[in-house]
Design goal:
Elements: H1 2-14, H2 19-43, H3 52-56, H4 62-91, H5 102-105, H6 108-124, H7 128-144, H8 146-151, H9 169-193
Helix pairs in contact: 1-2, 2-4, 2-6, 2-7, 6-7, 6-9
Length: about 210
């Protein structure tokens, strides 16, 4: 996602598109597309290990193994997204509002939230197919019902596209905190479920 987003922005900038359009596109790529790609990549490692039975017979914790794989996948996506954010900021293509804090806060909280929800569904559902569908469905629902979500006192702090929608600074900061906390809670529940990793023995076939 970061590479494709960078290529698209570079092409549009080279063809003379207005700065306002480029700034909005940067927000869409960083806040909407990169977190979605990171979450889908992270959930893809759940339930696809042909050696899970062997791992369960060793002292190694499958929770640690899975956390390492998902963490590596998400970490690589995060590094690529951060590099893209730095490049865009230096190029002067940047969403209005967040400032330099947006180098991390535009994309990291949505990525944590989507990845946490995705991993929770993947472990509870014993495989990545249901989780990928759930992540895509939530993302699409928030995009379609953006008006209702961002104005709801209950849902606003779990709204994925606060930067794209230009939430004021106060609600925007609360939204970033809400997404990060919600994602961390989902990851904590996922870790608890993985205390019994044998549940993944019945994972869906690859």
């Amino acid at each position: 996602m970061p590479l494709a987003g960078a290529a698209l922005i570079a092409v549009l900038a080279a063809t003379g598109h207005p700065a306002g359009q480029l700034d909005r596109l940067a927000a869409v790529v960083l806040e909407a597309l990169c977190p979605l790609g990171a979450a889908l990549a992270a959930v893809s490692v759940v339930g696809r290990d042909p050696a899970v039975e062997l791992i369960l017979t060793t002292p190694a914790s499958y929770r640690r193994v899975l956390a390492g794989r998902a963490g590596l996948t998400a970490g690589l996506a995060a590094a690529a997204t951060l590099a893209l954010a730095i490049a865009l900021l230096r190029a002067g293509i940047w969403p209005a509002g967040p400032g330099t804090a947006g180098l991390v806060l535009i994309w990291a909280p949505p990525a944590i939230w989507l990845t946490g929800i995705g991993l929770l569904v993947a472990v509870a559902g014993r495989g990545p197919a249901l989780a990928s569908g759930a992540v895509a469905a939530v993302w699409l629902a928030e995009a379609i019902f953006a008006g209702q979500t961002k104005t709801s006192p209950v849902l606003r702090d779990q709204y994925l596209f606060a930067t794209v929608s230009h939430l004021p600074p106060g609600p925007w900061a609360a939204n970033r905190a809400g997404l990060a906390l919600g994602g961390a809670a989902a990851l904590a529940v996922t870790a608890l479920l993985l205390a019994r990793p044998a549940r993944l023995l019945a994972a869906e076939p690859s």
